Amino acid sequence: MKNFIFDLYNTLIYIRTDEYRDETWRPVVEFFREHGIETDVATLRTLYGQGWDSMLSRLGKSKKFKYPECDITDIFGEMAKRQGVEFSREVCEEAAKCMRRASRIEMSVFPGVHELFIKLRSLGAKIYLLSNAQAAFTYDEIEECGLLSRFDGLLLSSECACRKPDPAFFKMLFEKFSLDKRASVMIGDDKESDGKGAKSFGIHFVHAPLGAAAVADKIIKLVNGK
Question: Are residues 56 and 78 in contact, defined by beta-carbon separation less than 8 angstroms?
């Protein structure tokens, strides 16, 4: 194998979040107030949930992708609009980042990930990321964890309007970076999105329920086709 395609959250980065606790939304209430909207935790939390449901329903009806994905910046734009104010895309992104920071309970790189990447590089392998994640804040989190420069290419679901296990999402990555299926493997913690997606697209899959570093030996062996 030459191309190693990793999932991100709970494969490379361990993360725990809670998007519905009051502590998550209090800073967002203040953010909205600073931008001209008087609101409260319950209202924003409700609008957020409704926004996801509504947008996913609209995307699903278009039938462009089997597994559609929303962009969280659009969700926050709709939340502001329903309260009588138009947010720019930049303000929507800041609102999303505000919510995400407050929602995080824990985030850290799994021990051994950096060492795994160094080893793969030394063997001439290429490293890619294919993640069901939001570009508004995920690039910042990858950088915060010191991983951004490690990848030869990245693709996030919010940038593509579809998500794993949709084979269309895999296809976008392979076309963008001219990858060969025969020389590629997907590594992830989720048998449904990562495993089912890889199988439907026609590439090898390594299950890493405890993170990629926990199966480092298996991954390294694949470089030499073992």
Answer: no
